[in-house]
Amino acid sequence: MAIAIAHPQWGAKPETVAERLDVMLAMDISTSMLAIDDNSVRRITQAKDFMFSLMEQLKGDRLGLLYFAEASVVVCPLTSDVKTLREFLASLTPETLAHRGTHIGNAIEVATDRFVSDRSELTTKNNSSGQKVLILFTDGEDFGDDAIAAAKAAKRDGVHIYCVGVGNSEKPVPIPLPVESAGYKRNVDGQLVLTALNEVSLREIAKEGNGNYYHADEGVAQLATDLAQLEKQKFRVHSDGEYEERFQWFAGLALILLVGEMLIQKWKNGKEDSSSKMG
């Protein structure tokens, strides 16, 4: 028991195998996401609610967060710490959206580069095309011309691209300025700038990216179901040089000896009783 209490250790811990998807959530933070459509909710708010619900469905997977407008930046790298990612997303408010233009192609390229360059303590056991997923949350207004080409290139690198459209494709609406009291966005001629969901573009991007398109009003059920059907990547989890605990052997041996002592004592007592009766 004394040896067991000392926690003896020797031999490296065996590697374990885990499965997961690596999912990058990409949020459009251009000013058009401030628009309010038929549901009386800002597009950015609807997209965030969708993301929060989706996170609950992706437990066990690694998630990352990327913001994009005229440029793209990974604000939270791929991580299993979903709590941290939720905090990053919760801190995104309408007041922080002051970016003009949207380059979806750049967002795809930045996410793909992060997937390719990502190095972690987990090493792949096999090479599964379902390992990497990019989900774009946007109204689809794109001022770049390279989104389709970027989607094709991402597919060649094993990235699946899914698009979640936010807004109304049939009813354009004005774009509120970040400070509501300032009114709506206008062009150089003083005319209101209107914005509408571009579903055609998003469907094409998803198609070329070997993924699918969903509208934010549809909820997360179908998207979560489709992601669950992807073949998850298997990973060997290294032991990081830690030794295997061996105290169980000594504790078990001590238990056997204690039980043996009790049985021997019981046998000796029974033997003495038999002898006394015969006497």
Spans of at least 5 consecutive residues with low confidence: 120-130
Helix proportion: 25-40%
Strand content: 15-25%
Strands across the major sheet, in which order?
Answer: 5-4-3-7-8-11
Number of helical segments? Answer: 8
> Termini distance?
41 Å
Q: What profile does the largest beta sheet have?
A: 6 strands, mixed
Number of strands: 13
User: What spatial form do the alpha-carbon principal axes imply?
Assistant: elongated
Written description of the protein model:
By secondary structure, the protein is an alpha/beta fold. The chain contains eight helices and 13 strands. A six-stranded mixed β-sheet has the order 5-4-3-7-8-11, with helices on both faces. α2 (43-57) links the parallel β3 (22-28) and β4. α5 (147-156) packs parallel to α6. The longest helix is centred in the C-terminal third of the chain and has 32 residues, at 247-278. The protein is elongated. The two termini are 41 Å apart. Mean pLDDT is 83; it is low at 120-130.
